[in-house]
Amino acid sequence: MKRLVTTFLVSAGLLAGCAPVERTPAAGAGALGDRLSTMDEVVRWIRGTAGECADVTSRGPADLTGFFGHDIAARYAPFVTEWITCAVSPEFPKVGVLLFSGDSQRKFQESWRAAMANGEVADGPSLAFGNGFAVSSGSLGTSELGLYYFRCDYHDPRVRQVPSDVSGCVFAHPEHGHH
Predict the structure, then answer these.
(1) Does residue 171 sit within a domain?
(2) What whole-number distance in Å separates Cα of residue 146 and Cα of residue 154?
(3) Residue 19: inside a domain, yes or no?
(4) Taking CA 29 as the corner, what is the angle to CA 59 and CA 49, rounded to the nearest 5 degrees?
(5) How far apart are CA 164 and CA 154, in angstroms?
(6) Residue 169 domain flag
(7) Radius of gyration of the chain (CA)
(8) Could you tell me the sign of the dihedral formed by the alpha carbons of 31, 32, 33, 34, in that order?
(9) Number of domains in the chain
(10) Dihedral pair phi/psi, residue 138, rounded to 5°
């Protein structure tokens, strides 16, 4: 019996040692944390992190223009699966929360990079990004939610940076790494 127990424990240990180890990617949106793939997940996460996301209101594609302006809304619209607004605090009474599905977040990054290269936009979007979503108020996103700005041709050694899904661009977190 002792031999059977020992054999079982050794076998279990070997099997556990062979189990794949899940690693957080070092680059791309996957490096920004767990992927949130539904709006309910994002709202719960914001509430758990910032303390509130009240008055959740589902918005349609046409509402993007009223919220972001025509030019910027046109850049987001092809890539946003769903979006809402909610109140996070008196300082942030109406925050837009955008959800990306599949590889639409990567496609958004590619599109923004191309627009910068063509001179159509001069800087990165003011959104703060997580894995699968973005919030409209970058300062809320970086200071209270721990999210990242998307920047291209960006070089600031004092700011924590994660390579994005697009060559020449990074996710930058200015709240971390200042000397």
Answers:
(1) no
(2) 19
(3) no
(4) 60
(5) 12
(6) no
(7) 20
(8) negative
(9) 1
(10) -60, -40
Looking up tokens 């769903």, which residue turns up?
82
Does residue 76 contact residue 100 with C-beta atoms inside 8 Å?
Answer: no
Check if the beta carbon of residue 57 is closer than 8 Å to that of residue 39: no
| 10 in any annotated domain | no
Give Cα separations from 126 to 12, 13, 147, 176, 177 (angstroms): 50, 49, 12, 18, 20
- Look up residue 88 and give its amino acid: V
DSSP H or E stretch at residue 26 = none
Query: Which residues are within 8 A (CB) of 149 and not within 5 positions of it... i.e. 6 or more apart?
Result: 124, 125, 127, 128, 129, 138, 141, 142, 171, 172, 173, 174
* Residue-range definition of the domain harbouring residue 138: 26-147
* Nearest to 51, CA basis, from 107, 19, 89, 16: 89
* Banded pLDDT at 24 (limits 50, 70, 90): low
Confidence at residue 86, expressed as pLDDT on a 0 to 100 scale = 97
Write out the two tokens for 73: 């809304």
- Say if residues 34 and 131 touch (Cβ distance below 8 Å): yes
> In the structure, what pLDDT confidence band is assigned to residue 138 with cuts at 50, 70 and 90?
confident
Which two structure tokens, joined as six digits, stand for 35? Answer: 């992927």
Which two three-digit tokens encode residue 154?
């960006």
